[in-house]
UniProtKB/TrEMBL annotation:
SUPFAM superfamilies: NAD(P)-binding Rossmann-fold domains. Pfam families: adh_short. InterPro entries: NAD(P)-bd_dom_sf (IPR036291), SDR_fam (IPR002347). Belongs to the short-chain dehydrogenases/reductases (SDR) family. The keyword Oxidoreductase applies. It comes from Microbacterium algeriense. It comes from the Bacteria. This is SDR family NAD(P)-dependent oxidoreductase.
Length: 254
């Protein structure tokens, strides 16, 4: 998928996407670079993938900074933004894409630590680099966004609740961001074919993806959903700060 964003629409801009060594994050950062942005590729433990992506984006004539960071570690996050400041001096687009909570062997409160506390800390740490006209995008799922009114699969519920807690906490910052001229958009998507979360859900609940696909009529794949995330970084902020991607007829609005 090419020409997701108008050519040159991000010329001279700097964009950071958390969790961008693979999947939705990698495609999002690629679309932003194709539109002209210099980028920051953030990864937790996939350094070779991140470096390979950076090399591809440099071939487009973009600058690409690769920064490993554990988003649940405030010191690691501070180091990441110090690297961004040293390399670029500013940030125009921040996409809060990284999330998790279904991994095995993590602490009981890991989902909340990553999906709420870390998201808030990343945004707060980034804010000094964000100037007027900058954009922040938070990536979530319908299963999380609508969790208070529409139940989800038990296997996913702890993640959904933590993602919604993160969304709520970030939304409280919208007035302060708006005062600085910074736009904030939540992008919520249905289950995405080919993501780690979908794979883990399918493992825990065989047939879940097919069932949801049948109910929705279509599920977006990784590159299609990433295109919507990238567009949210450029297109006008919706009045309710929410961009819903895919079918929502099975979900009850609050």
């Amino acid at each position: 998928m090419t020409d997701v964003l108008p050519a040159g629409s991000l010329d001279g801009k700097v964009a950071l996407v958390t969790g961008s060594s693979r999947g939705i994050g990698a495609d999002t950062v690629r679309y932003l670079a194709e539109a002209g942005a210099d980028v920051v590729i953030n990864f937790r433990n996939k350094a070779p993938r991140a470096e390979k992506l950076a090399a591809q984006l440099r071939e487009l004539g973009r600058r690409a900074l690769v920064v490993g960071a554990d988003l649940t570690d405030p010191a690691s996050v501070a180091e990441m933004f110090e690297a961004v400041r040293a390399e670029y001096g500013r940030l125009d687009v921040l996409v809060l894409n990284a999330s998790g909570g279904m991994e095995s062997g993590m602490a009981e409160d890991y989902a909340l630590t990553l999906n709420r506390d870390a998201q808030l800390n990343v945004l707060n740490a980034a804010t000094p680099l964000l100037g007027e006209g900058a954009r922040v995008v938070f990536v979530t799922s319908h299963q999380a966004h609508f969790i208070r009114t529409t139940p989800t699969m038990p296997e996913y519920e702890p993640v959904a609740l933590s993602k919604r807690a993160g969304e709520d906490a970030l939304r409280e910052l919208i007035p302060g961001l708006a005062e600085k001229g910074i736009g904030f958009t939540v992008v919520s998507g249905d289950m995405i074919e080919g993501t780690i979360t979908a794979t883990l859900l399918e493992r825990a609940n065989p047939g879940a993806i097919a069932e949801r696909r049948e109910s929705a009529g279509k599920l977006y794949n990784v590159s299609e959903f990433a295109a919507e995330v990238a567009k949210a970084a450029v297109e006008p902020v919706p009045t309710d700060n929410t961009r819903l991607v895919g079918d929502v007829s099975a979900f009850v609005a609050e």
